[in-house]
Design brief:
Elements (H helix, E strand, L loop, with lengths): L1 H7 L9 E2 L2 E2 L1 H13 L7 H5 L3 E3 L9 E4 L8 E7 L2 E6 L3 E6 L3 H6 E6 L3
Antiparallel strand pairs: 1-2, 3-8, 4-5, 4-8, 5-6, 6-7
Length: 118
């Protein structure tokens, strides 16, 4: 998984994108899981939030999905947890980047984590 993430760092944002030429947040998750594990996932952050095992913030592990309400109250953004509070995701303005759950913006919008693989 880490090699796939490394390859996609800096990929620009593209709404609905799911290729190395352009990604949105759920496209990143789907592409990484497909290439790393052969797992096909639903292509929206809201649908991804409905699958897997709910995981508390303090129990997050590498590869878990982290979800945010960036637009109103419903889940609208997803990233992949890397450890030590860091997660990889796709920013509209900065493309594929690493951020931290402790950053005020993400801390206030955090909705939960999901574990897809044991």
């Amino acid at each position: 998984m880490s090699s796939e993430i490394d390859r996609l760092m800096g990929t620009p944002y593209e709404w609905g994108g799911s290729t190395p030429e352009g990604l949105d947040c759920s496209g990143l998750v789907c592409l990484v899981y497909q290439r790393s594990f052969g797992v096909k996932l639903p292509g929206s952050s809201e649908k991804l939030y409905r699958i897997g095992k709910p995981t508390g913030k303090s129990d997050l592990s590498y590869g878990d999905l982290v979800f945010f309400a960036t637009s109103g109250f419903r889940v609208s953004h997803v990233g992949i947890y890397l450890g030590s509070g860091e997660f990889v995701h796709v920013s509209k303005s900065r493309g594929t980047i690493i951020s931290n759950l402790s950053e005020d913006y993400y801390r206030r919008r955090y909705k939960g984590g999901r574990r897809l693989l044991d």
